[in-house]
């Protein structure tokens, strides 16, 4: 027969896991996709959720390269004028 304390702990852990799963799902569903507009050709394209300040990205249509600038309340693209070297990454 199960010990009541162990059963209670298992139930609490199960409910905690389910609650975290639901909250994560809600966040993913309600999170808006990050959109950017190319300054050269005007194409609107999606950026990855996990994009970071200073990361390089490019327009999928014309290939113009940008540096992503993220501030507290907005995202900007600054045209990248240098050569891109990823060192095999």
Automatic annotation (TrEMBL):
It comes from Caldivirga maquilingensis (strain ATCC 700844 / DSM 13496 / JCM 10307 / IC-167). Pfam families: Zn_ribbon_LysW (PF21344). The lineage of its organism: Archaea, Thermoproteota, Thermoprotei, Thermoproteales, Thermoproteaceae. This is Lysine biosynthesis protein. PANTHER family: LYSINE BIOSYNTHESIS PROTEIN-RELATED, LYSINE BIOSYNTHESIS PROTEIN-RELATED-RELATED.
